[in-house]
Design brief:
- Two copies of one chain form a homodimer.
- The first copy, chain A, is an all-alpha fold.
- The first copy, chain A, has one domain: Farnesyl Diphosphate Synthase, CATH 1.10.600.10.
- In chain A, 73% of the residues lie in helices and 1% in strands.
- Chain A has 14 helices and two strands.
- Chain A starts with a helix and ends with a helix.
- Chains A and B meet through helix 1, helix 2, helix 6, helix 7 and helix 8 of A and helix 1, helix 2, helix 6, helix 7 and helix 8 of B.
């Protein structure tokens, strides 16, 4: 990892962490004015938004905007980045619920329904989704049509034709045999749609051309799958402490994984193939896309 | 009820029912193309969108638009009406979950998690929320800035500073003593925010002036509270079959209600006071607001 990319990653994460902490603090202030103590939901809001996540999706927003020539600065762009992370965060909260994946640990801490209770976890997720769209509708420095386009992109990626549909497929796939193609399709919806949206939304924020948006989307498709392949590898090879979630959870739940379908070395080869395809999709971009290029390497070589 | 208003109610409900059935059918078509059978979530989507609800919020959208001079026609306005109903529908699904109000019956049928399962109910609610914002972002015939304003209104009303915050207050209020003011505050968020949003969004769709939006919002505040007061009265006086939900549920759960705080006759007087306040708020509107005036009477005099 170059020093420059290391700094970019750190700066992106710091920026998003700061904004998300501000958003949680603002909600706490508003809640006081609502005339009712809104605990525990306000505490849960802060808990899930200040959890030390890697902030991959916001970082992709900044990197995509830079690839198209945006300087990466501005509250509006920060809010686009935060909206993506808030949708991702809500999906983790709901996925961890006992009725879904029933996971007690998330990012090394008790998951939201364990730290609070199920009702609070459901409502916190619901509120995060609403606020993600509110942030985009208010995003400073963007024309109304840009904001509308950003909202369309996120709503489609988050809904039945994206993340939610993928999660429904995933739940149904437990204890069943999926082909590799079915597994890829499931992940393309479950995690891929939001990752692609992060890239195209960064592009939209920077007034990308249709060709540039298409290239960013293709890159996103490849790294989205790569991300999942690596997740499955880490689920076998990693340990619970480094991962911050229960290791071996997927194989234990008898869920199909890339490793179970391709073997460990097949999955590693696949992650390399996807890395090269992602780099290839960025062909038309100059060195403004170097953060995206390094990001692809980072996603494939990460150990947590 | 005038013949004219009866026809307006019926036409509004038919229009929304048709659009929501189309939306569910379109999702089913898309799901087939996703290469995976998305049952049961697609079935659940249809189940909750074609459930014979009264469609109060969509009707308020049409009535508010008419009050400002809109002819009440157009796919864009239909989609605004549907977005409101989809947010309301998702909130009922999540509120009925065992971890929340734990209600097995909704609109005379098994609630979503009983007809399907909890995971499907959570995901169906999540997908409905995302699609509500997608509908607004795509609403035909509106300028981008109108769509952005519609989305801001709905997102704020649906989130922590609105419906979700109110539901959090409601859960916390079970088995506690609330003052009348606290009860009103809770309902103003839990159900009032979306009802007010329906009215202001109908106004925004019809290019209402700031004064008109303010009057529509004030009217909405009064009928929103009236709606809840009448709900509490019906919870005591109605029977389960007419109501389509478990009668006596709130008092059984030891939740504070208008009836428990004001007595039955006090609650009835309060509903009349709110009715008059709602009519008063419409002072500046001509007879284009007659559907809103009749709507206020209808809400207060309904028996289910």
């Amino acid at each position: 990892m170059s020093k420059r990319f290391h700094n970019f990653l750190q700066a992106s994460k710091d920026q998003v962490d700061r904004q998300l902490a501000d958003i949680a603090a603002n909600q706490a202030t508003v809640a006081v004015g609502m005339g009712e103590a809104l605990d525990p939901i306000i505490q849960a809001y802060r808990y899930v938004l200040t959890n030390g996540g890697k902030r991959v999706r916001p970082t992709l927003v900044y990197a995509a905007a830079r690839a198209v020539g945006h300087n990466g600065q501005g509250t509006g762009l920060d809010h686009v980045a935060c909206a993506l992370e808030m949708i991702h965060t809500y999906s983790l909260i709901h996925d961890d619920l006992p009725a879904m994946d029933d996971d007690d640990v998330r990012r090394g801490r008790p998951s939201c329904h364990k730290a609070f209770d199920e009702a609070t976890a459901i409502l916190t997720g619901d509120a995060l989704q609403a606020q993600a769209f509110e942030l985009l509708a208010n995003a400073a420095g963007f024309r109304p049509i840009q904001r509308v386009t950003l909202i369309k992109s996120l709503a489609k990626a988050a809904g039945l034709q994206g993340m939610v549909g993928g999660q429904a497929m995933d739940i149904k796939a437990t204890n069943t045999d999926l082909s590799l193609q079915q597994l890829q399709s499931m992940h393309a919806y479950k995690t891929g749609a939001i990752i692609r949206a992060a890239l195209t939304m960064g592009g939209i924020a920077a007034d990308a051309s249709a060709e540039q948006l298409s290239a960013l989307g293709a890159y996103g498709g490849h790294i989205g799958l790569a991300f999942q392949v690596v997740d499955d590898i880490l689920d076998v090879e990693g340990d619970t402490q480094t991962l911050g979630k229960t290791q071996g959870k997927d194989s234990e739940a008898n869920k199909p994984t890339y490793v179970s379908l391709m073997g460990l070395s097949g999955a590693k080869k696949e992650s390399q193939r996807l890395l090269q395809a992602a780099i290839g999709a960025l062909g038309e971009f100059a060195n403004t896309a170097d953060p995206l290029r390094e990001m692809a390497h980072y996603i494939v070589s990460r150990d947590c």
